[in-house]
Known about the structure:
The protein has three domains: 2-42 and 142-234, FAD/NAD(P)-binding domain; 47-132, no CATH class; 251-341, no CATH class. The termini are far apart. It contains twelve helices and eleven strands. Strands 6-2-1-9-8-7 form a six-stranded mixed sheet. A three-stranded antiparallel sheet has the order 3-5-4, with helices on one face. A hairpin with a 7-residue loop joins strand 10 (251-252) and strand 11. It is of the alpha/beta class and 342 residues long. The structure holds flavin-adenine dinucleotide. Residues 10-16, 32-35, 39-42, 44-49, 134-135, 159-160, 207-209, 219-220, 223-224, 227-228, 261 line the site of flavin-adenine dinucleotide. Its cofactor is FAD. Keywords: FAD, Flavoprotein, Oxidoreductase. Residues 6-270 form the FAD-dependent oxidoreductase 2 FAD-binding domain. This is L-aspartate oxidase. It catalyses: L-aspartate + O2 = iminosuccinate + H2O2.
Amino acid sequence: MKLETDFLVIGSGVAGLTFALKVAEFGQVTVVTKRGITDSSTAVAQGGIASVFDTAVDSFDFHIQDTLASGDGLCNEAVVAQVVKNGPDCIRELIDLGVHFNTTENPNDSASGLDLGREGGHSRKRIVHAHDMTGQEVERALVANIRQNDRITVLEDHIAIDLITRSTRMKRGAVITAHETECCGAYILDRASGQVKTVAARITLLATGGSGKVYLYTSNPDVATGDGIAMGYRAGASVANLEFVQFHPTCLYHPDAKNFLISEAVRGRGPSSGTPTAGPSWRNTILRRIWPAGMWWPGPLIRSLKRAATIRSFLISPTPIRILSENGFPICMPNVSASALI
Length: 342
Ligand SMILES: Cc1cc2nc3c(=O)[nH]c(=O)nc-3n(C[C@H](O)[C@H](O)[C@H](O)COP(=O)(O)OP(=O)(O)OC[C@H]3O[C@@H](n4cnc5c(N)ncnc54)[C@H](O)[C@@H]3O)c2cc1C
């Protein structure tokens, strides 16, 4: 079967759906996604999105410095600056699309009205969030907008297998070589019928997320198998930085259940700097269980990750799980708290 579309978007996370909504203004869009539309890393993201809103105490420069320090010398500074400076506008776009972020009534908290949280590596409160289910709320609003747009067709349970490319013969001196120079769609497997569909498109976007699921232990969803990176590579695209795989050091381990992320925001509610001080506070109790000493901030963490072949610091003791059901966690982090107790 052959289908034609102006824009083929492979993946239904925040990247794919945001792109689909923007380009629908210019033509017909087909979004393919290998499971249900909400099966994505986006939908399971918890803590929130870092962005500068409280300009009385925060600035782009502070956010850039924090990011560079966390990256421990590995960041591309131009990209960091671009992402940081575009953050507030992107958040406002999401709000305009109907995303409900937590707000605060307290005028001393944030001039923006947004309830800003703080996470490890950030010297200021700048995490815009929807409780501890931020990604679920972002995905909900994007899907609602997608469903209302009659220029966008969504094909669920459709797996992109490979890109379709056109090659150009190039003559350099006496040598003629073939180069894959143009992508004109993709072959897509319809899981229900077992049929491979040929989808021809003027523009194809790979928005297939990460590859965390190739590891045995991960907080990533099952769909995160790196297909898009492989497809792009096979089509001749350059790939880079493949050693950077999302790794959450705080996962709940249970022999009979899937790994579940204990949000970084849990850590963010802990001590503001340095190593933990002795004392009976719940923060120290939970954090010392989760984090080995000296791994409080991303800099040292990244350095130790670089050294370690494998790191598995799973949360296996029942004590921290009990703590997640107390100390106000059920109110501010209902998702983490409830899931940890199941
Ligand atoms: C547990 C967890 C918590 C997180 N918490 C945060 C957080 O608090 N803050 C933050 O900023 N980030 C967080 N992240 C990271 C964030 O979720 C991701 O960076 C972001 O959602 C990636 O969006 P994406 O659209 O690129 O990919 P995804 O949301 O993963 O979407 C990829 C899509 O591609 C589809 N797909 C893949 N291969 C194919 C194929 N071959 N054919 C068809 N479809 C395919 C998938 O089904 C999926 O729909 C978290 C991630 C996880 C896993």
